[in-house]
């Protein structure tokens, strides 16, 4: 049975993916590159929830949410121009992404058999 935090993280991650899919229409006006980035990021938002549902891997809810948040901020920053307009937006998104990668590696190493 899943705890409330994990369910909430899955709901938020899927919601962010749906928002990115909705933004794909405006990303197409930026060209094919904008559309592909939005589609890829939307799919990545769904991955932790789908993997947990299928039983492939079960990341803690906090990590699932942080992965989806980092991808969402990246895609939103590209689409809205925040990377150009906000001087520290790049630092925020890359710091969050680095924290996600390192935390995911720690969880993977702890869950692997000795």
Structural description of this entry:
By secondary structure, the protein is an all-alpha fold. Helix content is 83%, strand content 0%. The chain contains five helices and no strands. It has helices spanning 4-28, 32-54, 61-80, 82-85, 89-111. α1 (4-28) packs parallel to α3 and α3 packs antiparallel against α5 (89-111). The radius of gyration is 15 Å and the shape is globular. The two termini are 26 Å apart. 25% of the residues are buried. The model has no long low-confidence stretch (mean pLDDT 81).
Helix-strand blueprint:
Blueprint: H1 4-28, H2 32-54, H3 61-80, H4 82-85, H5 89-111
Helix pairs in contact: 1-2, 1-3, 2-3, 3-5
Give the count of helical stretches.
Answer: 5
What helical percentage do the residues reach?
A: over 70%
Stretches with pLDDT under 50, minimum 5 residues = none
Backbone shape: globular
What is the percentage of strand-forming residues?
Answer: under 5%
Kindly state the mean pLDDT as a whole number? 81
Straight-line distance between termini: 26 Å
Based on secondary structure, the structural category is mainly alpha
Write the H/E string, N to C: HHHHH
Number of strands: 0
Radius of gyration of CA atoms, rounded to a whole number: 15 Å
Largest sheet: none
Summarize the structure.
This protein is mainly α.
List keywords for this structure.
114 residues, 5 helices, 0% strand
């Amino acid at each position: 049975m899943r705890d409330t935090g994990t369910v909430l993280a899955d709901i938020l991650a899927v919601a962010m993916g749906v928002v990115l899919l909705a933004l794909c229409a405006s990303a197409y006006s930026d060209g094919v590159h904008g559309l592909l980035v939005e589609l890829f990021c939307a799919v990545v938002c769904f991955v932790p929830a789908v993997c947990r549902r299928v039983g492939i891997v079960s990341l803690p809810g906090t990590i699932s949410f942080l992965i989806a948040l980092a991808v969402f901020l990246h895609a939103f920053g590209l689409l809205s121009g925040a990377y150009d307009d906000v001087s520290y937006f790049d630092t925020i998104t890359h710091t969050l992404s680095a924290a996600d990668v390192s935390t995911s590696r720690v969880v993977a190493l702890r869950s692997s058999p000795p």
